[in-house]
Amino acid sequence: MIFFTKMRVNGDEFIVIDNRQHGYCSAELATLARELCLEKSTLASGGLLVVEKTRDPAQHFFMRAFNCDGSEETLSGNGARCLAGLAFQSGIAPREMTFGFSGGIVHATVDPVPPDPSTSLVTLDMGGVDLGHAQWHQTFSFWGRNFVYHALSIGGIPHCVLPLDNLEDLSPSDLIPLARGLRFDAKRFPEGTNVNFLERDEEGQSVRLLTYQRNVNRLTSSCGTAIAAGGIVACLSLGCSSPVSVITPGGISEVTVRQDTTSPERVRISLRGEALCLTKGTILFDAGSAFRTSRPVCTSLL
Question: Most buried of the four, 14, 103, 137, 242, by CB within 10 Å?
């Protein structure tokens, strides 16, 4: 039996478990993610988030994130906001916290949103982003048309950002083949890439963002590292002011981009937006099933 919490950030829904006492191994967690977080699951299609012990006394916990196919991500921006909100609400960490992930550390600040105890406003300091290997103003030809894109990595996650004058000019049936053309271009992106379509408003205060995620191969409601990538491109290439509002189908996040004083090729990024606890529940297993027949039971709404 495992207790879980279902969380939502920007339309992205996750199952969160505390593994500090259970000590489930990576293979078991991957199996659990596949069973609980199927693409059309009513429980959560965003993935599985895991709170684990940290060996660093400066950190409050360690974060792991599993996709619905069982693969493990380096970092989930939306997932990190979920964990920060839950860690504060459940007493795992104080309002200002630090936690680790496989690619580094994250600092977060959580503010309650009264009168709703299930909602928190989370500011996530994602630290420095190295743009030394970013590729700016690249050209990709598709359908006899040249598209300009910018490629960069956020927390070890590759992103390709295509600025468009108007997202409405291309329907989803047009965007998906274009996204797949880039995502599976092994010469440009040997590990694949997330593909983001970005539209700037006239005032330069906000952008709209649509993301095709490489781990699920479809357009999604939101992706935290994509929001960060879109914010960087908006501020550094499209002339938007920081902080910039990034509007996705799942909601709105505020992205702050500032120069990192340690290097001219680095910027510091922070995301700000709401994290919502939806429900708590229990995952039950048949005797000896080893996660093969999990039965989630939601026990109470927050």
Answer: 14
Asked if CATH classification 3.60.15.10 holds for the domain at 2-127+276-301, the reply, yes or no, is no
- pTM equals 0.88
In tens digits, the chain (302 residues) has pLDDT values of 788 999 999 988 999 999 998 889 999 999 888 888 765 555 666 789 999 999 999 999 999 999 888 899 888 889 999 999 999 999 999 999 999 998 889 999 999 988 888 899 999 998 899 999 999 999 999 989 999 999 999 988 999 999 999 999 888 889 999 999 999 999 999 999 999 999 999 888 899 999 999 988 889 999 999 999 999 999 999 999 999 999 999 999 999 999 998 899 999 999 999 999 998 888 776 655 555 445 555 554 44
Contacts of 196 (CB under 8 A, 6+ apart): 159, 160, 161, 162, 209, 210, 211, 212, 226, 229, 230
**What is the fold of 132-264?**
Diaminopimelate Epimerase; Chain A, domain 1 (3.10.310)
Residue 170 three-state SS = coil
Domain residue ranges of the chain, discontinuous segments joined by +: 2-127+276-301, 132-264
